[in-house]
Amino acid sequence: MTTPSKPPVNDQDCIKLEKLGDHFSDGNTPELVTGSPPKKMMDKFDGVRRLSTISEREPDKLDTNPDSHEPLGGSEWGGSSLSMCSDKFRSSSSHFSSDDSYQPGTGADDCAALLLACLYCHFHELMVLLPDTCERAVSRCFPSYQYIVASSERDQQGKDCCNFKLELDCNFCGSCQDAGELIELAMEISEVIRYFEAREVAYKIVPLPTTEENKCMELVTKILEEVHEFGIDRRSEPIIAIGGGVCLDVVGLAASLYRRRTPYIRVPTTLLSYVDASVGAKTGVNFAGGKNKLGSYVPPLATFLDRSFLQTLPPRQISNGMAEMLKMALMKHRGLFELLEAEGGKLLHTRLQSCESNNSSEHEDSATASTRIAIETMLEELAPNLWEDDLDRLVDFGHLISPELEMKVLPALLHGEAVNIDMSFMVYVAHQRGLVTANEKDRIIRCMLGLELPVWHQECTLALVQKSLKERLKHSAGSLRMPLPTGLGHAEIFHDMIEENILCQAYQKWTDELASSGNK
Amino acid sequence: MGKVPFDVNNTKDKKAEFSLVQVKGTWKRKLGKKASDGRVDRVSAAKIYESITDKGISWTVVSPIVFTYKVTETQNILDPSNDTLLLGHINDSQQLEDIKKSNKPLKRFLVIDQEVQKIYGPRLTEFLEANKVQYKILPLPTTEENKSMEMALEIVKEVNNFSLDRRTEPIIAIGGGVCLDIVGLAASLYRRRTPYIRVPTTLLAYIDASVGAKTGVNFANCKNKLGAYIPPTASFLDLSFIQTVPRRHISNGLAEMLKMALMKHRGLFELLEKHGHMLLDTKFQAVNNVYGCNNLQAASQATRTAIMTMLEELAPNLWEDDLNRLVDFGHLISPALEMEVLPSLLHGEAVNIDMSYMVYVSQERGLLTEEEMQRIIRCMVGLELPVWHEACTMELIQRSLQDRLKHSGGLYRMPLPVGLGQAEIFNDTSYEVLHRAYEKWCDELGMSSKHL
């Protein structure tokens, strides 16, 4: 095949690369990668090959063992940032089947090289690669991509030219979920690698698909094998986990088992893990169909909270996290509740990023304040009861019915969404028992809706509620231990089973008033 | 409320200490250490330290945890009228009374070593039936080769199917060290922490595995690479299990007793010196006409002292925060040796060979007299333990000590006896000393001494 002529490398592309860089957590403007990326990158990106294990579904959180940073919500992110090259090429092919799974194979290196060349705007290199790899690239990297024959006016480029290149459209990277994930991972890994190399740290990155479905002992074992092979000092070299709740839980368990206790660090990348999973001591995996049936209460050495990770979260995930913030507000902090009530929508849309203009202000903005309060209130409850010796826990609010519900409709509801539905129902119970006024109840529900959280679900039937409460009674040493709000921002724990009539009335009213808001 | 004012004039980092008080079921932090008013339900021992810099806030949580566990001697634990196995772990007398009065049958899940099941199985079943316990017995081949996560998960699976109360129905482990370790780990993982009880059936488990907090399984061909520091709710010690232990395994256990004696108890050393052989012959049992009623005294005296000295060392350092541990004596070289010749040396035997060599090192350093050293070796031989092994080469010793450095924060932390029943930890033993000691050790013990 002949080598196609190089398209001009255009300043426009370079600028857009920098913009891309702004999405990164450290906020620094990254330097442009120079040199010859495909080969250089390949040396570093052994990890890319592991992408074959990433599941098609919610690319939830990726675990990494010392380094790689895996972002959330692949396709959305990928699409918008990769339009840098698209001005030149428009593809008429837009047929993608999202069900095709990514086929790993020996072409994986080529895929990575290809994408990275594209990524770092070394389009000329991409062009060079394509003639040799295009067919494989298409079938291996982008199995959903429809093969197109170039239109006739392009033939002047030369015979035997790889037709494909002319129809190449970087937008396909955005549309194809596989490619989008590959690119994101590649970019994020490169950032983390840059960080460690600048500090001359010996590192090993282990990206793993840490989804709820994979949250099992096998994943823990895989991490342990990697840790063992890498070799860390017993006390001074902590394992670092970067990801959402599932990731942090799984790595935490692996770390607590290795040598009976290995220090580890958590870096949460979702809002839910930011306010919840990261601050407690619990670690765990699912077992025999039960959530978190195996685990430990070994806290991390440290948790580092950087809100800029939240920028790459889809809105639904932000709402998901806000449910846990709301939980703490309802249980013990009126101020936080009022903040969420007044500014919840704004926080949601800005993804809890602080406004630039407030940097020099002496006041804390709402994003900073709300996360700070959520964490402080959580720490207050967890620190005196780290090992759950006391089964009366305010933080259980929203967690009496939601486990059943969540498992029943898995994966339709995210954890925080299920928690919110539980809380919403419990608010009606509280009202029925005269603990909160109608006005307070309505304010709470309105707040929830403002946070774009579901407040009702058809699968949350009265039968499910009753079953959950019976289970609760059974497993909490004979007492219901039900936290209920007793006003806005304070609560109490109730020990006796709720009277049948109250439960039914509350359920009826809850359904009457909220069923129309529908399932989320 | 959307903004919280900071003190903008204070350019230094702000630091604050908060205690935690509970008011009407809700925990709140309170600045400083001053006592709170009467409305407080209780005050926690935990504290939160807050530090504010221009980068943000940093909270440090200090949450102490207290483990309480019992190590209880009993006799005839499988006698149906002895309720130790079922209720011995309960501390609260009210709770105990309530249970005894209640008609509700007890529920227990028991994991028992396969070999132990063969000997004691029927009596165990009889015990449980007589006490109307709802039970499930899971016999497993708990050998060193099987000491893996797979076996621990198998236990968890069965426990999960059986359905135990989260707090009040402990899992019971009956067997040797391997069994107790595996069940301990399974119990610490299930529901993040499930109470469990240990019933050791070998001498080694009796004085060692049963009294500490460690649990674990092997991983990637390394001993005890995975585990936890979760102690059992209780350990029940019944010497009568030792009757059915082979002689070699009793010696095996005696090695660990000797270790404690050499490190910190002259009295125990003298007891083993004088009565070691008898204890072996009688298998620590009381009834033996040859030696008269001194038997019971010697057997229980020995085990009690061994356990007490062990508890003294473990209790203040349950999670091994302090890597200087006298109980590491005999455990610097033995892991490598044990793995090297597996399965020809039992754990205690390897430990003894290590200790024997270290005694020569002590003497070479002038910490022990020649006479003391000989007494110790004679005692070991009297306990029918190996005092030398050809696989314990200078190379293996050096390799082990290098490993020790790596895994103990850069120091050897080598416990060495400095007299009979006294020891200290040393970090500076030179190669010359080690070598000279090795030569002497081989000369004196290599040819004639008992070794496997």
TrEMBL record, chain A:
Residues 321-465 form the 3-dehydroquinate synthase C-terminal domain. GO terms for biological process: antibiotic biosynthetic process; regulation of gene expression. Its cofactor is NAD(+). InterPro entries: Dehydroquinate_synthase, DHQS/DOIS_N, DHQS_C, EEVS-like, MDFI/MDFIC. Residues 207-319 form the 3-dehydroquinate synthase N-terminal domain. Residues 19-79 are annotated as: Disordered. One of its GO terms (molecular function) is 3-dehydroquinate synthase activity. Keywords: Lyase, Metal-binding, NAD, Nucleotide-binding. Residues 40-70 have a biased composition (Basic and acidic residues). Belongs to the MDFI family. This is 2-epi-5-epi-valiolone synthase. It comes from Lates japonicus (Japanese lates). The lineage of its organism: Eukaryota, Metazoa, Chordata, Craniata, Vertebrata.
TrEMBL record, chain B:
Its cofactor is NAD(+). It holds the Pfam family DHQS_C. Residues 140-251 form the 3-dehydroquinate synthase N-terminal domain. Keywords: Lyase, Metal-binding, NAD, Nucleotide-binding. This is 3-dehydroquinate synthase domain-containing protein. It comes from the Eukaryota. Gene3D superfamilies: 3.40.50.1970, Dehydroquinate synthase-like - alpha domain. GO terms for biological process: antibiotic biosynthetic process. GO terms for molecular function: 3-dehydroquinate synthase activity; metal ion binding; nucleotide binding. Residues 253-403 form the 3-dehydroquinate synthase C-terminal domain. It comes from Lates japonicus. The keyword Lyase applies.
